[in-house]
Amino acid sequence: MYSKWSKFLLLIFLGLIGVAVVLEVGLRILGANHPVLYQTDPVLGYRLEPDQGVTFFGNAISINRHGVRDERDFDSRLPDTTRILVLGDSVTWGGVRLSQRDLFTSVLERELGDAEVINAGINGYSVWRMTALYREYLRGLQPDVIVLYLIPGDFHRAAVVDLVRTSPAFPLKKPAFALSSALASARIVLAAKLDWDWLQPERPDKPRDTLAAEDRVRQNIEAITQFARELSEDQRLLVVVSPFSDHSKNPPLPLSVNEAMDDAGIEILNLKDEDLRAPDNFADHIHLSTQGHARVGRTLAEYLRSTERKEN
Predict the structure, then answer these.
(1) Regarding beta strands 145-150 and 161-163, do their DSSP bridges make them parallel or antiparallel, or are they unpaired?
(2) pLDDT band at residue 77 using 50, 70 and 90 as cut-offs
(3) Phi, psi for 270 (deg, rounded to 5)
(4) Domains and CATH numbers, the chain
(5) What 3-state class would DSSP assign to 145?
(6) Which residues 6+ apart lie within 8 Å of 88 measured at CB?
(7) Per-residue b/e over 134-169, b at no fewer than 16 CB within 10 Å?
(8) Residue 28 to residues 25, 36, 56, 180: CA-CA distances in angstroms?
(9) What is the pLDDT of residue 208?
(10) Taking CA atoms, which of 42, 136, 179, 218 is between 20 and 30 Å from 6?
(11) From CA 210, how far away is CA 158, in angstroms rounded?
């Protein structure tokens, strides 16, 4: 009797090992063990590791030598073409599940026709870090237009946070096993989709400051006004506030933002139209769906075309 049960349990164990091996091989083929990597940075805390190309579950993602999401190197400029640099957070970055061509930056480029649009969004970035990213690494791209694409929460973030360990959301190195990486990624996606905080893994980042909430807002606003002063006269700065759903996790845009932009003469566009805030435009409470990216891209193209005509 004992021998029969031992054989039965052994067969179950070997079967589970076999299933795990098959899943591991399949997930490796899909790229689950080769995510987009981050690297630590003394000024920014972290940024995307430059010069990497991955295929994650069939989605090809390229990070060029500047550390932005594009396969082009932008070493040369096309004649009669406006170069637009979009600085932002995870909404701009778009995540690893969306194709580059579906992001609002790519839609904007196609809609305008005579522009090259550079996606410089990075997960978790504050407004301060977006401007510092340009200052440290992207100034040489010499964009004609710089778009700060923000959500209200970006003003509440600590200026800089450091990665204290690698994680599925911010991997600093390739995971040892594709299966564990896929399960961890699925956990993060499920937690965001179902709004289950208890399912979220432990945060891998640590703020460098302990400022009060109102001081962080002030610091991020001042980053924009300082940034505007640093740009040349022929560069255009546009602050865009992304549409966001009515959700308890989405703080309102601080009133001081509009006041500060008006006082500094900085152009600001708040995408708060009801059409852009429709539920089907969001993958979760804040990140855009493929449809949301398309609508935002077309809206920005229309705005830029109309304001360009007024300026001319």
Answers:
(1) unpaired
(2) confident
(3) -100, 110
(4) 53-166+208-311 (3.40.50.1110)
(5) strand
(6) 120, 121, 122, 125, 130, 147, 148, 149, 150
(7) beebbeebebebbbbbbbbbbbbbbbbbebeeebbb
(8) 5, 14, 9, 11
(9) 95
(10) 179
(11) 8
The string of pLDDT tens digits covering residues 162-213 is 999 988 889 998 877 666 676 766 666 676 666 767 667 677 889 999 999 9
CB 120 within 8 A of CB 60: no
The values of phi and psi at residue 136, to 5°, are -85, -35
Token digits of residue 272: 């708060």
Provide the 3-class DSSP secondary structure of residue 60.
strand
16-25, 102-111, 168-177, 219-228: lowest mean pLDDT where?
Answer: 16-25
On whether the CB atoms of residues 296 and 117 are closer than 8 A, the answer is no
Average pLDDT, the chain: 88
312: its two tokens: 């001319």
Picking from 197, 207, 188, the residue whose alpha carbon sits closest to that of residue 46 is 207
